[in-house]
Write a structure and sequence with these properties.
The protein has helices at 24-31, 38-41, 47-64, 113-126, 143-152, 175-184; strands at residues 9-10, 14-18, 69-73, 79-86, 99-104, 133-138, 155-161, 167-174. 34% of the residues are buried. 35% of the residues lie in helices and 25% in strands. The chain starts with 8 loop residues before the first strand and ends with a helix. It has a five-stranded antiparallel sheet, sandwiched between helices. Strands 6-8-7 form a three-stranded antiparallel sheet. Helix 1 (24-31) packs across helix 3 and helix 4 (113-126) packs across helix 5 (143-152). The mean pLDDT is 95.
């Protein structure tokens, strides 16, 4: 797997930047929101589990060379979620692969921000990252994430079971389809 690097990406309304240990308090607040982790946990995440999550993200920066990034609202400077590219180690049957994903705090949903963050990560993956294919994975009940994937041009690759036995849909976007969509504007 190529080491993509951990960029800072800026969009109209967002900054995606690497996480650091100083982000723990903001993440604890985000992860305490039950809806933030509804898929797949069906509950909030504890402060201890959030610390372990951040530790894994930082370790994956070292081992994979890239990973999920903090999503900061440009207007306020607030941490509002996370998004980006990561290896979906939790679903070995799709490997080797790079996944784009996102999670946003409740007040920032249904405003096009997940699509904006996802598009920035996908563009980076296909341009600077040199990827040939990106996947995105969701539970069928998570209709909103499925819609974001459709907007980004992802199509069904397979349906399978996730690590907790839940049904998951794996979507994919090959580089040629991404390039065609960009040309067609």
């Amino acid at each position: 797997m190529a080491h993509l690097g951990i960029p800072t990406l800026t969009t109209e309304r967002l900054v995606l930047r690497p996480f650091g240990p100083e982000d723990l308090d903001g993440l604890v607040e985000l992860h305490a929101e039950e809806s933030f982790w509804w898929y797949p946990l069906r509950s909030a995440m504890s402060a201890a589990a959030t610390a372990a999550f951040l530790g894994r993200v930082l370790e994956l920066y070292r081992s994979d060379g890239f990973g999920l990034e903090a999503v900061v609202e440009r207007a306020s400077g607030s941490l509002i979620g996370w998004a980006g590219l990561a290896v979906p180690h939790f679903l070995p049957e799709v490997l080797p692969a790079v996944e784009v994903g996102w999670r946003l705090a409740g007040p920032y949903r249904r405003r096009g921000l997940a699509t904006e963050a996802g598009a920035a990560a996908v563009d980076f993956g296909f341009t600077s990252g040199g990827l040939e294919r990106i996947v995105s994975i969701y539970e069928p009940e998570n209709v909103a994430s499925g819609r974001v994937m459709e907007k980004l041009g992802f199509t069904l690759e397979r349906t399978t079971r996730g690590p907790r036995g839940e049904e998951v849909v794996v979507t994919e976007l090959p580089r040629d389809r991404w390039a065609e969509r960009r040309r067609d504007g």
